Amino acid sequence: MRKLITSILAATTVLLSAGFAHAIDGTLTLYTSQPNDDAQKTIDAFKEKYPDVDISFVRDGTTKIMAKLRAELQAGATPADVLLIADSVTMESLAADDLLMAHEGADISAYASGIHDEEKMWFATKLITTGIVYNTAAPVTPKSWNDLLGEAAKGQVAMPSPLTSGAALIHTATLINNLDAGWGYYENLAANGAQASGGNGGVLKAVAGGEKLYGMVVDFLPIREKAKGAPVDFVFPEEGVSAISEPAAILAGTKNPEAAKAFIDFLVSKEGQELAASQGYMPAHPDVAAPEGFPALNDIKIMSFDAAAALNSAESDKAKFAEIFSQ
Fold this sequence. Notes:
Blueprint: H1 2-21, E1 26-32, H2 36-49, E2 53-59, H3 62-75, E3 82-84, H4 88-96, E4 100-101, E5 122-123, E6 128-135, E7 157-159, H5 166-178, H6 183-191, E8 195-196, H7 200-208, E9 214-218, H8 220-227, E10 232-235, E11 242-244, E12 248-251, H9 257-268, H10 270-278, H11 307-324
Parallel strand pairs: 1-2, 1-3, 7-8, 7-9
Antiparallel strand pairs: 3-12, 4-12, 5-12, 6-9, 6-10, 6-11
């Protein structure tokens, strides 16, 4: 009897120990470029599933948040455990410097190949495309990227600069590698009086205010503003669109890898993707419906993009763009 009781107690201890070993708790710090409201909603939804995780976030634009992160790492340590930022090129730079931790157990079987990093260093959380916004007073409704080179668009095109916008840098790399004209397309845009400066918000403001009639811009901005009554509409050009994926990743130095993995798992789960859709973004998950105002994911032609190649050409692409637009 004594031996039986001892065996039962030992087995119970093992089971309890295993349970505690897999408990998701502790603290977690997110560095993100998401808007504050979206970041807070993301954290609130995660905490509903993992109430024992005390998660906080630091928010800024991707360029600034990366400068902060790298300065902290250079100084010896960062409080950041997970990242959720604008673009995969930045993630590739972190992976190249061995600053990310792979999450090999992440279930991404529902997703199309190529959406997430093949080595599971970073994971797409949504698809934000760049297409054409136009003022509803414009004389021509654009259907193609080449429509921005026409007479109606002469001096009437605004676009973000890849010198200041990560999404614009990816958009530039995508177009030059997918359009037959390559850099010639941007040379023709410059010759037609296109204006390149700042970020996507400035483009939307210029087009909605009538200062410009056309613009290159990320999809959710004009789609949201159109729903509010702004005189704008958005086009997914027939040649296709570029896309950023707002990837998430785990920092190699995280002190809470289990909670960090749980956060990634939540973001790529169907529930996490439904949250992204409810915030007005195109979900990356194929089984989650697009928000109102968006076409179905299968109806959007997304141009090919190689994040690693774009990282290698980023500085030369910026220099070439600056040369064309005299920046």
